Every structure is written in C-alpha cells, then in structure tokens.
Amino acid sequence: MILLRQLLGDVLRRLRVRQGRTLREVSTLARVSLGYLSEVERGQKEASSELLASICGALGVPLSQVLREVSDQFALAELQAAPVLADMPEHERLPLSETVPGSIGDAVFPEVKDMVAA
C-alpha cells in the first residue's frame, strides 16, 4: 500500500538535503521539535496543514510545489502497482467510466479510451 505520509516525508527530506540544511536548522525555523520533524520526514507522523506550511516556509518552498511533487510520486507509485490492462482478461476489465473517477466515459476522454484499448 502506498502511504501518503511516506511520500510527503521523502519529498520534504529531499528538499532539505538538496539545500544542504540540517534537521535542526529547519526545525528551528519551522518552530517544530527536531524529533517530530524527523518523524514526519521518515513518514511516521501525519503532519497537519499548518505544520506543513511552516516546514515549507522554513525551506523557502511553496506548499503547492511540495504537494505537486507528492502527487507526481503518488501517481507513479499507483501506476507501478496497477496491473497492466493488456495482461488482464477482457471480462475482468472495468469500463473506462468506472476506472476514472468523475469521468463521464468516452465523451470526456476519448483519447484515453483509445490508449487503454490499444
């Protein structure tokens, strides 16, 4: 199972290390304990939106950028975990409208249906 808190922690750690900053530096600027920040980076604690905003502020990175990176990583992890449709028997495949939440089928994403069918 893909855990959002682990992906978020990985992104935060990568940003901090890329900047050459220590946990202590960032925890002081973010006004969060060193131990708690460490647990967030290791994916052991769920960070509140307020805490994430504080950490991002300490790193000088917009929260939206962090969330975008997490979203991209999550999408990649989902793709790697998903069975390949070509290897799945036709009777086990869901119609496109059931596999894409919120879609209305062929009318919205005809090119996706063509790619899936290929």
From TrEMBL:
Residues 12-66 form the HTH cro/C1-type domain. It comes from the Bacteria. Gene3D superfamilies: lambda repressor-like DNA-binding domains (1.10.260.40). Coiled coil: none annotated. It holds the Pfam family HTH_31. This is Helix-turn-helix domain-containing protein. It comes from Nonomuraea typhae.
